[in-house]
Amino acid sequence: MSAEAAILPGRGGLFGGLSDTFWRRPKLFVFLLLLPAALWLGIVYLGSLFALLLQSFFHIDDFSGLVVHEFTLKTYAELFKPQNFDIIVRTASMAAMVTIASAIVAVPIAYVAARYAKRRWKALFYLAVMLPLWSSYLVKVYAWKLVLAKEGIITWVFEQLHISPALDAILAIPVIGGNSLSFSFIGTFLVFLYIWLPYMILPIQAAVERVPVNLIDASADLGAHPLATFRHVIFPLALPGIVAGSIFTFSLTLGDYIIPQIVGNGRLFIGQVVYTQQGTAGNIPLAAAFTVVPIVIMGLYLWGARRMGAFDAL
Amino acid sequence: MRSDKVDGGPRASLGLKFAAAGGLAFLLVPLLIIFVYAFTTEEKSFQWPPPGLTTKWFAVAWARADIWSALTLSVQVAAISTALALILGTLCAAAVSGSKFFGREVVSLLVILPIALPGIITGISLRSAFSLLDIPFSFWTIVLGHATFCIVVVYNNAVARFRRTSGSLVEASMDLGADGFQTFRHVILPNIGTALLAGGMLAFALSFDEVIVTTFTAGQQQTLPLWMLEELIRPRQRPVTNVVAMFVVLVTFLPILAAYYLTRDGDNVAGMGK
Amino acid sequence: MTAAVSLQKVSRHFGLVKAMDEVDLEIVPGEFFAMLGPSGSGKTTCLRLIAGFDQPSSGHIEIFGETAEGVPPYRRNVNTVFQDYALFPHLNVIQNVAFSLMLKKVAKAERLKQAAAALETVKLGGYGERRPGQLSGGQRQRVALARAIVNRPKVLLLDEPLGALDLKLRESMQEELKALQKSLGITFIFVTHDQGEALSMADRVAVFNDGKVQQIGTPEEIYKRPQSRFVADFVGSSNVLAPDFVQSILGVRRWASLRPEAIHVMAAGTSASRMTGTIVTRSYLGAVVRLLIDLNGTSLHASVPSSEAVPGEGEKVTLGFAKDAIHLMENEK
């Protein structure tokens, strides 16, 4: 009945031959699949990072203003000058505050979205997170410029409620206050919080969704108070999500230079220094050395996050 | 049994609901405000509430050549970067999910790195590489930067789908007489197609919107975000900026909705890839 | 006559793990051959090598006399029914079944006709337009079967095809598969960890353990004359008798096996036999009652027809069996 041969002849042609070869040598096939992306990221991205790192070991000649292509740690030493070190501390503390605040704001949203929202509400939550996430970054900053402006909506709301003095009092606080919200640290903080918040919500939601519902039910059946359930069951399981989210909020805040430029009191952040040093000031080595700071901080952060299993929640 | 389980699903406590609702309002209200400002008659300040409403700024914006050229450049850059990212990201995802090999974790880390590190690092790295190698800024230097961080979006979407697609499907296809290329065409592509479409759209949106890396890799050219940045720092005609901002919000809304419908049964839209 | 499938000293190593270690097999054309063993015994690896999903580390494989090494699965006239069925979710049932015909560029009308006929064979006529996701497990399994036979392969491989089905369905599918194999005349190679399934369906059985074939034979041979303690133990819960025990009865120091049903259980004192023991547990299994008996420290299983008067737990009993019921094993492993 089966008159055909048990082994069919090769199909010939380029495709037939290639297909047979890939089957015989699966490792070669995987290698070829990986090659384009690995080459791209390896050459374009890592190559550039390396070029940057290299630059940070050069320095600017004080008299001629030209880059001296010699190995030196002089540029790194400059980072520890008070005016530069201030910038690093300011940026890192802002990143830390934004991260903590966004975790606090994100947990209820992510938790409700993951646990309680059904159908329509689920879609609404999804859009409410995705829309700000994918909306143009500049448009979001711009929206906050509008909201925080002296003649803008927040001032108006305070006036309508007849509590303008409260706003003035907040703005009068030294360091974090300012002329108006859009020229204060509070403003910078709010915009950072707004813009990076979705990056915190999504991984937490993913992590909470991964907690089997019956685990929570089991805890409830054991008589745990909802709050205790949250603390002893949900929170530990959502923690990798929070850590994963914090990678984004922390890293993105560290490197941003546009938000403090548009909404802020003029005190510099790392990103702004990098931008001006490489641009107008022409001091690429110092800019490069400044860039190494977030890389080192993020390197440590990622290393720690990895050990907590945060990458599973990405 | 607790009363909140009677209707089959648990209910959130009131406090939790308020917190979540407040959070949602915080996320959405600022975007809605832009829509109002696009119609304001006020030209000089960000006055709220608007003293009057008008649609004349739409016509003004429509007639501006600089906006059109910025928009065209953004679309071109996004299209080419997305195409590159689709090829590189899909191949890489296929390799990583299809086999276990030494260094697999290194590869996935390498893919995530361009978004895990701040954009400014990618930007200045590329700029310093261009300056070391004497590469002049051009359309292609912008694409080079954009494709680098778009790969991860496609990769994340594709990996999620590959994981859901049973590995034995490929074996079944080969068993039934399909060689590698036929298997790709008849089995793999139909199964990952929607994930690639979603990933591609998100990559497009990402590139269309990118400003931080672009400031370092663009010379004299202006993408739409660079145009907006210029307007934010040195405002020329605020109402026109309002109109463009509203347009951009509307444009990004569509791919998100589409991506949602394409991937909703099962994997998350890998929005994390931003 | 050329063997349908012939494996000669075939090994497959994954790093240090020897999934298959120098396996020799000859499968006769047209037979229903079962590969039986616990998980990790190498039976599935063996199947994958025959299908071409994997390649041997060393050794030689022939399919109907032709060398199979280096030949990808799509050039082997061998089809597989997968454990998870592996139906294409983007295609409907008839498209799934017609997949291989489409690749062969059979005209559309003709391939739909053949696919429909194959669906009839597995009693799924009229289900062609459904999606795999809309079918029950048993129906999916039939679609997978139809898809694999529509091409009339020289060899059909089945990887635990009944594993995911419930007991009742499994029993009826066993009979159907056997009937199907008879009517098609195709060589079936069937992987299973269920000894009952292997014994009831196969013409011949190969028992795998630790990457090696322990024994090949007809179900009766395997069941009655296990060559090793592993086979005796794995195929049908035989009593494995230690050399000391065997010496006390037969006078030879050898491992041996004794089927539970070969043991006669009598109330204590009613027989001249010197073997008296105590019933430890008593399990009612319908047609038979299964007893675990402690015989001076040796545990023996016996199964007694439930129609007989069966003593209860804790009672003293005398055991008897024919000396030739004790099967000495060649392999002392």
UniProtKB/TrEMBL annotation, chain A:
Q: Which domain of life is it from?
A: Bacteria
- Enumerate the spans annotated as ABC transmembrane type-1 domain: 88-302
Which keywords appear in this protein's UniProt record, sorted alphabetically? Cell membrane, Membrane, Transmembrane, Transmembrane helix, Transport
Protein name as catalogued: ABC transporter permease
UniProt subcellular location: Cell membrane
> Which GO terms of the cellular component aspect does the record hold?
plasma membrane
Protein's UniProt keywords contain Transmembrane: yes
Origin organism of this chain? Answer: Devosia nanyangense
Q: Which InterPro entries does the annotation name?
A: MetI-like, MetI-like_sf
Write down the membrane topology.
Answer: Multi-pass membrane protein
Homology family: Belongs to the binding-protein-dependent transport system permease family. CysTW subfamily.
Gene3D superfamilies according to UniProt: MetI-like (1.10.3720.10)
Q: Name one GO biological process term.
A: transmembrane transport
Automatic annotation (TrEMBL), chain B:
Q: How does it sit in the membrane?
A: Multi-pass membrane protein
The subcellular location is: Cell membrane
- Per its UniProt record, what SUPFAM superfamilies does this chain match? MetI-like
Q: Which residues form the ABC transmembrane type-1 domain?
A: 71-259
Q: Which UniProt keywords apply?
A: Cell membrane, Membrane, Transmembrane, Transmembrane helix, Transport
User: Where would you say this protein principally sits, based on its record?
Assistant: membrane
For this record, the Gene Ontology CC terms, alphabetical, are: plasma membrane
One record GO biological process: transmembrane transport
Recorded hits in PROSITE patterns, A to Z, give: ABC_TM1 (PS50928)
| Chain segments annotated as transmembrane | 12-39, 67-94, 106-125, 137-155, 243-262
**According to its UniProt record, what is one Pfam family this protein matches?**
BPD_transp_1
What does the sequence similarity comment in the record state about its family?
Answer: Belongs to the binding-protein-dependent transport system permease family. CysTW subfamily.
Protein name (Swiss-Prot/TrEMBL) = ABC transporter permease
Q: Which organism is it from?
A: Devosia nanyangense
From TrEMBL, chain C:
Keyword field: ATP-binding, Nucleotide-binding, Transport
Organism superkingdom: Bacteria
Annotated ABC transporter domain ranges read 5-235
Q: Does the keyword ATP-binding apply?
A: yes
Sorted alphabetically, the Gene Ontology BP terms of this entry are: putrescine transport
Cellular component aspect of the GO annotation: ATP-binding cassette (ABC) transporter complex
An example Gene Ontology molecular-function term: transmembrane transporter activity
Q: Enumerate the PROSITE patterns for this protein.
A: ABC_TRANSPORTER_1, ABC_TRANSPORTER_2
Which range is the signal sequence, renumbered to this chain?
none
Q: State the family it belongs to.
A: Belongs to the ABC transporter superfamily.
In Swiss-Prot or TrEMBL terms, this protein is called: ABC transporter ATP-binding protein
- This chain's source organism reads Devosia nanyangense
| Species lineage | Bacteria, Pseudomonadati, Pseudomonadota, Alphaproteobacteria, Hyphomicrobiales
